[in-house]
Amino acid sequence: MFRIAICDDESLFAEELKKLISDYMMEKGLVYEIDIYTSGEALVDLGIEVTKYTAVFLDINMENIDGIKAAEKIREVSREVFIVFVTAYVNYSLEGYRLEAVRYLLKSSTNFESTVNECVDALMDKLNYSVEKRVFDFKEGKREISLERLLYIESNLHKLEFHVMEDDMKTYTMYETLNELEDKLALNDFIRIHQSYLVNIKYIKNVVRYKVILTNGVELVIPKARYTYVKEQFISYQGEV
């Protein structure tokens, strides 16, 4: 399933773009869904759920939260979502490079339809984009998951619960110790905040007194003895990104 979000405060243009993409997807025989958001705020409010989209078409020139700011928020939670900027101007190349935009679509282009079609082709090619995935032997069966979509792992009653963002939030279980998983994921920005929690640090929104708040609103307890360490690691990571 190829899921696309269009974020543009010009509703007529958004519908036009949706039709162009839909027509080309149908011509290619692709399975797809397209959602429209009429403000940057509406898209940003999705938080981690934005990762359900394969690609996001962002109008750069929106009020309040424009396309650049929205793209920055997307990049805080995922490098996996493809970003396409849609703009009436051509002077954002440096921003596009920084935010890893796949394409710019110029609204005033006389061959706009063909550039949209070429963009969809480029997105299809880039689906081979390298994202680190691991195969886990869950109770529900073996499954390959993207580490970028794994929010946290919880140890609960002698089993581990993996909280993964797919089309929506899913939980998979397996029998293994959190210590073993901590060693396996040590180089993938996972941090042990508690004897029972191993968390993907990119999904930590804030660290407040004795708890972390994740980007989807979940709050996890930090024991007093680990608080300073977790806070320092979070601040260090924020400085890196």
The general outline is: globular
> Helices and strands: which structural class?
alpha/beta
Give the uncertain stretches in residue-range form. Answer: none
- Cross-sheet strand order for the largest sheet: 2-1-3-4-5
- Whole-number radius of gyration? 20 Å
Q: Roughly what fraction of the amino acids lie in strands? A: 25-35%
Write down how many β-strands occur, each being a DSSP E stretch of 2 or more residues.
15
Protein model, in words:
- The chain is of the alpha/beta class.
- It is 33% helix and 34% strand.
- It has helices at residues 11-28, 40-44, 67-77, 93-98, 112-126, 178-184, 224-240; strands at 2-7, 32-37, 55-59, 82-87, 101-106, 133-138, 141-146, 150-156, 159-165, 169-174, 190-194, 197-200, 204-208, 211-214, 219-221.
- It has a 5-stranded parallel beta sheet with strand order 2-1-3-4-5, sandwiched between helices. A 5-stranded antiparallel beta sheet has the order 10-9-8-12-11. It has a 3-stranded antiparallel beta sheet with strand order 13-14-15, with helices on one face.
- The mean pLDDT is 89.
Give a brief description.
The chain is α/β, with parallel strands linked by helices.
For this entry, give a set of tags:
241 residues, five-stranded antiparallel beta sheet, alpha/beta, single chain, five-stranded parallel beta sheet, globular
SSE inventory with pairings:
Blueprint: E1 2-7, H1 11-28, E2 32-37, H2 40-44, E3 55-59, H3 67-77, E4 82-87, H4 93-98, E5 101-106, H5 112-126, E6 133-138, E7 141-146, E8 150-156, E9 159-165, E10 169-174, H6 178-184, E11 190-194, E12 197-200, E13 204-208, E14 211-214, E15 219-221, H7 224-240
Parallel strand pairs: 1-2, 1-3, 3-4, 4-5
Antiparallel strand pairs: 6-7, 8-9, 8-12, 9-10, 11-12, 13-14, 14-15
Helix pairs in contact: 1-5
